[in-house]
Task: structure prediction
Amino acid sequence: MEPSDSTSDRSGRLRRGPAGYWAFVPNPLPPALDLTGRLVSRLALAERSLGRLAGVSATLPNPYLLIGPFVRREAVLSSRIEGTMASLSDLLFFEAAPNLQPRASDVRGVANYVQAMDWALSPSRALPISLRLIRELHRRLMTGVRGSHLTPGQFRTSQNWIGAPGCTLDQAKFIPPPVQEMLESLDVFEKYLHAPSELPSLVRLAIVHYQFEAIHPFLDGNGRVGRLLITLLLCEEELLPSPLLYLSAFFERRRQEYYGLLLDVSQRGQWEAWIDYFLEGVAEQSLDAVERSRRLRALHAEYHGRLQKARASALLLKLVDALCASPAVTIGGASKMLKVTHRAATLNIGKLVEAGILEEVTGKPRNRVFVARDIIRTVEEDLPPSSLT
Result:
């Protein structure tokens, strides 16, 4: 990273670190922005699309039937951006039977993401949006996984950098602020989170995400924490009544553009291009969530209709509801959830297998895991653009 890489001080400045390298220190938010006609149109579309999703969310009798699958999809895709290659099926299998998961070391980090999000979005969470909350998110994400030796829950006390795998500090593409400047930037960042703003909320969210990534306050896990914050702030600022919008699918699908535009803000002050991309992601993923939720609700209604026609018990319908939230289960898990005996849980799961709702996936006589394939497929399939209208 050299001074010649930077052609603008619109978003920050370069300064020499203790060892003579050049590091980037972001300017305080907000920047002066040129909200062109294109950006205003993009913002209007994003707000309309988000409004449609908010309308869907507000009418759900039990939002967690959708929140659970959406959070898990986000956990998989956000982790995939960072190089973790666990699938949704891996995650669900791990959650249902962690001791049987052959790739537990790979998928545990994705499960941590779900747990961190569940904690952050819980109505009982006592911490406000703050640096302390960000550290706690990081601790929950990073404990017991790859990178857990890199001080989970603690801001870094040494220099980090971004570049090709195995690159040195001298070869880095981007070097965040040295430790002292990082701490000062975080203090200003936290104050901005709590300050009133005249910017449209989605524009403000875009610049907040950039700023966190530019400060890069942890030795590992910055991207996952930054993407968690997007959904958390959407709910905290009441842009959505339930956490149904996640941008990692958009970022992962256009990963090089994601990284490139963030870097362009730092090096060339290209705020507007980044905000345009971010708003496009909000619009696209809002409509994706609207359509995906429609399909999940239709599948849920179909299952209920099929079972009610067969005069199914209330316990069986409750089990179907649980599968919509987390579509993998064991006999022991069903027994605990339904508060019934092992034998009764076996009988209820057997009925769902007969109905074609569940499928056993281990092929073993003991420690069996059952999955609802149709629900999983609906959650993780790519939706054609023509369906997002």
Summary: The mean pLDDT is 91. The longest strand covers residues 12-16.
